[in-house]
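Q: How would the structure tokens look for this protein?
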Amino acid sequence: MVVSRTRPPACTDQLVDALGATIVRMGSAGAKAMAVVLGDADVYAHSGGQYEWDSCAPVAVAAAAGLHVSRLDGSPLVYNQPDPYMPDLLICRVELVNAVLTALRMGP
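A: Here is the predicted structure in token form.
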């Protein structure tokens, strides 16, 4: 599981516990998304907020590669909004979606 090098999401521990994940910290939303696209990681979770321009291209590439992309609650990512701030992001392998979202719903 890849997370921000400087601001790992609050849900990191619960995902590690639920999924048995190993954490890899790295910078750049694009680098983290591409780690999942390339198969170097299974999950990218981000809860620190970012702007649409930080995630739009990585999300488009991940979606085109057949990965799951959503908010951390499973709702769709909606772009081109008057307020371009996006509070969170999830990119993961499709076969892990249910496990990841279940773990996130259970809370800390």
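The first strand starts at residue 2 and ends at 4.

Strands lie at 2-4, 24-26, 43-46, 50-51, 68-70, 85-86, 89-92.

Upvote if useful.
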